[in-house]
Design goal:
mainly alpha; MetI-like fold; two-stranded antiparallel sheet; single chain
Length: 289
């Protein structure tokens, strides 16, 4: 086999592998989209619909648009269907912005112990702390009602407490920024706060964009903590609201599929807005000397 034939074989194998990987990603998504456009509530099970099976009833339900549904085909009796709590409200509740901060190069007492403790805490899943979260918010809600159970600020407070999962990623990026930049600014009379705001933060935009995207995706799909904290449909997030569509005795697969497709819109928009920072934040350091 000559070199050109070997190169052609490698290209065929590589493209075949990419096509298989693409099919594994795209086909399930297409099945969910088709299930959201199929009349009735059926789980995703195909890539083709007959003309009489097409319907936008599930999308009308998700977008809170009233529609008529046939109750008795023999008599033609119909009813108007409208969700008691708009699923768009769950989507809005899920759009939570997380804030992060970093320990970087700053030297202070117990710095190493604090960072090591944060790393150790990452070994335990957040589900183990559900009882503690519930008790804390219950006690806090008696003093400050808008920060207690069944409130979005209370849930945001818990999510903000989970920024330790990203501290080491940010710290690693900050450590690649040359110390000479800080020393030069310090010689020019800049305070530590000015150095952080005017020098470190601007060159650290890529890593903060990566952390923002990861945090955004996590909060959009997080279920255990949200289900324990939020108790009424008006405060449910997307994950909790979507799970309510798949009850034990009634599984609304069509509504669930439409809501699942809609949930990808905010994530896609955020990713497109921040994509120019993502590669740099994941693969490179702050400044190259």
């Amino acid at each position: 086999m000559n070199p050109s034939q070997r190169l052609l074989l490698k290209k065929i194998v590589a493209h075949g592998f990419l096509l298989v990987a693409l099919a594994l990603v795209v086909l399930p998504f297409l099945m969910v989209v088709i299930a959201s456009l199929r009349k009735g509530n059926f789980p995703p099970n195909g890539l083709w619909l007959n003309p009489n099976q097409w319907s936008f009833e599930h999308w009308k339900y998700v977008l809170n648009i009233p529609y008529s549904e046939i109750v008795n085909p023999s008599t033609g009796e119909t009813r108007v269907v409208q969700p008691p709590t708009p699923p768009l409200h769950w989507l809005w509740n899920s759009v939570i912005v997380s804030a992060v901060s970093s320990a970087g190069r700053m030297r202070f007492k117990f710095r190493g112990h604090i960072l090591q403790s944060l790393l150790l805490l990452q070994m335990f899943p957040a589900v183990l702390a559900l009882t503690a979260y519930y008790t804390i918010l219950d006690s806090l809600g008696r003093q400050v009602e808008w920060l207690g159970l069944n409130t979005l600020p209370g849930l945001i407070l818990i999510y903000l407490a989970g920024v330790s999962t990203n501290i080491w990623m940010i710290k690693g990026y900050f450590d690649t920024i040359p110390a000479a930049m800080e020393e030069s600014a310090r010689i020019d009379g800049a305070s530590p706060f000015q150095i952080f705001v005017r020098i470190l933060l601007p060159v650290s935009t890529p890593i903060f964009a990566v952390v923002f995207i990861l945090s955004f995706i996590y909060t959009m799909s997080e279920y255990p903590v949200a289900s324990a904290v939020l108790g009424t449909p008006k405060t449910w997030t997307l994950a909790v609201g979507a799970s309510s569509l798949l009850r034990e005795h009634e599984k609304l697969w069509g509504h669930f599929a439409a809501l699942a497709v809609l949930s990808g819109v905010p994530i896609t928009v955020i990713f497109l807005l921040c994509q120019r920072f993502v590669i740099g934040g994941l693969t490179s350091g702050g400044i190259k000397e």
